[in-house]
Amino acid sequence: MSPWDALGIAPTTDVRAILRAYANRLRITRPEDDPAGFQRLVEARELALAWRPVSIDENDGEAAAGGGDAPPEAERDASEQEAPPNSNTPHPPRWRAPASALGPPDRSDKTPPRWRAPVFAPIMPTRNETPPPAKPRDATSDDSRLATFSARLGDLAAATDARFRDLAAWRAVLDLADALSLAEREAARGELAALLAERLPEPAREAPRPDPELIALVDRLDQEFDLARVANDAKRLPELSRRARLADWLAACASERAIANRRAGGPTAYRLANGLPLIPPEDRQPALARADLIAIYEARARGQKLNLRLAWRGAWMAALFPGVVAVARDAPLLALVALGLETIGFVIAVAAGSQFSEAGADALGRVETAGALSILVAARLVVMSAWPFFAVRRAAARVRRADRGGYSTSAGRRPILSRRLNAHPFFGLLTILFGFVDLTASFGALGVFLAAFDLAK
Amino acid sequence: MAIAGIDLGTTNSLIALWTDSGPELVENALGDTLTPSAISVAEDGAVLVGRAAADRLVTHPERSVASFKRWMGSSAGARLAGRFYRAEELSALVLRSLKEDAEARTGGAIAEAVISVPAYFSDPQRKATLDAARLAGIAVERLVNEPTAAALAHGLDSIEEGRFLIVDLGGGTFDVSLLHKFEGVMEVRASAGDSHLGGDDFRDALVALIARRHDVDPDKLARTDLARLMREAERIKHALSAQNSAAYEISLADETRSGEVGRADFEEAALPLLRRLRTPIERAVADARVDPQAIDQVVLVGGATRMPMVRALAARLFGRFPLAHPRPDHVVALGAAAQAGLKARHAALADVVMTDVCPFTLGISVRDPTAPDLRTMSPLIERNAIVPISRSGRYYTVSDNQAAIVIEVFQGENLRPAQNIKIGELRMPVPLAPAGREGVEVRFTYDVNGALEVEVVGETSGQRERRVFRNEANLSADELDKRFLALAEIKAPPRDQAENRALIARAERLYAESLGAQREHIKRLLSDFEIALADQQLRDAASLRNRFAAELDGFERNWPTL
Predict the structure, then answer these.
(1) Would an 8 Å CB–CB cutoff place B422 in contact with chain A?
(2) A268 vs A82 pLDDT, higher one
């Protein structure tokens, strides 16, 4: 079914006729009652609005090809300045690097200012071709405002590195931008993004913090001009490296902002301010929950003493099952020590136990019992005291990773065993083995203890 | 049975009904149309809602709470008098009081309502609003976006057609939408917003300004001091809308501080907030693909647009004076009532059709080897698509012998999934095959109520998996029932006592704010009133109350000169 059938009119470029037909059809195809029909109707309207007749006689090829990208505004009703929704890609590229992309622009060609270049045509199709219909007085004053802004921006673009980083100079330029109207700001945004994409150096990805001055600068510009939007659109362009650089800087800014926010308000305020779900109190586990870990990390970052009460909260688990906990903490060395100690303690305990049953109490038996018990207790003590250390270290690593990505750690239950354990059969086996040793050692120790108690009586 | 339209706001809430002559606001027991969104637990265990609770914020900050709309969708809440209330429950108490007002007006039951939410409310926040309504015993016919409601109210109000930019700056949220009205159709072309920006933030900027001047740390102030400071800042904010400077006198940490805030000082302190206002406006205009020159009118609604700096910003951006709505606080509620009228197919609205958009992008995360965490977004429904809408895409396995495809659903504009809001996930097992051989078709369907349905179909297996994300509430059904019963037991004071309660709370607040001889005066007035109430003759109560209210009015009016 062609869009014209759906609308019930003959093909036309008259926007008003299309909208009228759409309105009439809409009354019988209400969005609440017939979602599918409504969607078809909307799509038909978009197609109809984008439709341009191609005359066979004077088909010069260009009209057909150009129909997709350049809305022939002049043909249309002068009162309808709206671009047809489908005539552009959903997000038209708003800016392109100026011709003098690789060096500071030549000061001699200051006029005409760069924003006039046709590269911004997609956003303001009417600006260059047809003069804006209303307010010629405003238009001239707009021109001068934007021209001043552009000139100042050009100055900064040509400036030396030190001056390029000078926040005060930028602030002066941005104060000019405050007075711009919406359309001018759109042009200014493109120009600014192009300039930044040229001038910003490659961010050092692995460095803890890229250049703080530049971060402050880009952050400020981003808040002012929503550069992230430009960066997202830019991702669709083929010429990638420079756009990607801008996107990387913006990500670094977002990350800095996230860290600063969280430092300022603590995790809960941060999550609230960013619309992230909080961990419901009922989901928190008796052992260390994520929020606690973040709190510990925050405390460390601020140079405060580790919150011991918090850190020890889960140590009882380590005391019960040292081997399993050590594996779960991704601490292989600790796991080996725990397993070794436990095994030795268990073997001695079993040997001592058999002696009790055969020959009764003797001096040797008592020594061995005490030895076995102390080794088992030692295994537990080692893991128990190392547990908070590893927990904090892992939490710190996770928060650091999240900060690098510019986001907070996701909420949810914290698995007792790390994901790697669940995923890999070898680690699964290892956990089962450790669990077995843990359990037998625990019961063995209990048995030995009871036997020794019996003897003492 | 009538369907009501409710504006559940951060600072104030309103309820309106659709009548034959158009939408009409319902007054509460105190005769106001605005019911402050505040809850306070009285010493006798009664839960106060509205004006009385707002006044008790100053006198009993540990038993009162406001601005809880900001916590919707999270597990944050407030502990009042030993009981923990989630944001849903607090909102439910406000909704219940509004519902009672409307029922007192119509005489019948109000079981259904259209509730407005900020357009930028995410999925969990919308769910929380639904839960709140359920706790209040209201069936929600539809959630309508606040700017859409405002646009509807404005569109019905004005006769001319054209494109309108509706800028709605409320107490806690900011929304912008572009309305195109033609041939009796009201089409929202684009919505944008910031769900954590509103008049409260401007007040906080003032609080910070005053605190900085007197070298106090607002975080370290006692709760009563802070509450007083906030109230004073609120007063200054209002005063600065009418005059160029406002004086204040406030006792903080047992020390009286006074000074004057000029409009310029306030504007400087609020500059970062103004910048944040600009972004959504630009985004809405760009998304609607409308030339800023072609916008016929810029309409300001929401109480916070009374601030001159907000009007100046709009004027500067569009090069013309915006149209300030005469009753900016009421517009959203009126629009919600109109939506209720539409829903009920009211005869007066038979020819009006309203279409809305989905204000955010919905998509799934896909593998991208160039991204740092190997994943990027693949949008399915782009923001500001007209709803209801259904879109599908095909996705394929990325490694050999992949056993399943996990569809993670995200909401947000960011390229990196980790920086967007995750709504949920589905898992579809696929037959083992070389990479790229097996695939699924994912279909997103977004309906007029903002519920997202995701359907995944295995390409070779034909196996189907469907999930409507709206249906799983933040609280489980059992939990909701339990809390519903618990809330039902909480008794609000009877309606006829509401006025007395509000007056007493107001007198207490005035007492807390004043000093010396004035305090004595208020104390005497209050004790007289309470004694009279205690052995009241019912017919005397009204006149007594009026006298007391008049005295308090006179007191407050003469305040700065006393």
Answers:
(1) yes
(2) A268
Residue at which a domain ends, from B437, B460, B483:
B460
Say which residue, A442 or B24, is predicted with more confidence. Answer: B24
DSSP letters of B287-325?
A: HTT--GGG--EEEEESGGGGSHHHHHHHHHHHTS--EE-
* Whether residues B144 and B10 fall in one domain: yes
- pTM reported for the whole predicted model: 0.68
What's B37's domain CATH number?
A: 3.30.420.40
User: Of B201, B166, B117, which Cα lies nearest the Cα of B300?
Assistant: B166
CA distance A210 to chain B (A): 16
Annotated catalytic residue, options B55, B141, B146, B499:
B146
pLDDT band (50, 70, 90) for residue A54: low
CB contact under 8 A, A26 and B75: no
- Catalytic hit among B100, B168, B455, B513: B168
CA distance B28 to chain A (A): 31
Nearest CA in chain A to B357: A31
Task: Write phi, then psi, for B8 (nearest 5 degrees).
Answer: -95, 95
- Residue B506: what residue type? R
Question: Stretch B34-43: mean pLDDT, rounded?
Answer: 91
Q: Which of residues 165-194 of B touch A (CB under 8 A)?
A: 182-185
Based on the residue annotation, tell me whether B146 is a catalytic residue of this protein: yes
Domain map (residue ranges) of chain A: 3-75, 107-273, 281-456
For chain B, the straight-line distance linking the first and the last C-alpha, in angstroms and rounded, comes to 52
Give CA–CA dist B372/B363, Å, rounded.
Answer: 19
pLDDT digits (tens, 9 = 90+) for A236-262: 444 556 666 777 777 777 777 766 665
Q: Which residue has the higher pLDDT, B311 or B221?
A: B311
Residues 6+ apart with CB under 8 A from A190: A94, A95, A96, A115, A119, A120, A123, A230
Residue B443: which domain range? Answer: 360-460
**pLDDT classification of A265: cutoffs 50, 70, 90:** low
Q: What's the rounded Cα separation, in Å, for the pair B65 and B80?
A: 8
Beta bridge partners of B166: B177, B299
Domains held by chain B: number: 3
Active site residue B69: yes
- Give the minimum alpha-carbon distance from B248 to chain A in angstroms, rounded to a whole number: 28
Q: Each residue of B315-348: pLDDT tens digit?
A: 988 888 898 888 889 999 999 999 998 888 887 7
Of B308, B304, B335, which Cα lies nearest the Cα of B321?
Answer: B308
Q: Percent of chain A at pLDDT above 90?
A: 4
Q: Which residues 121-140 on chain B approach chain A with CB closer than 8 angstroms?
A: 122, 124-125
A144 class by beta-carbon count within 10 Å (0-12 exposed, 13-18 middle, 19+ buried): exposed
The residue annotated as part of the active site, out of B55, B69, B141, B459, is B69
Question: How many CB contacts within 8 angstroms connect chain A with chain B?
Answer: 134
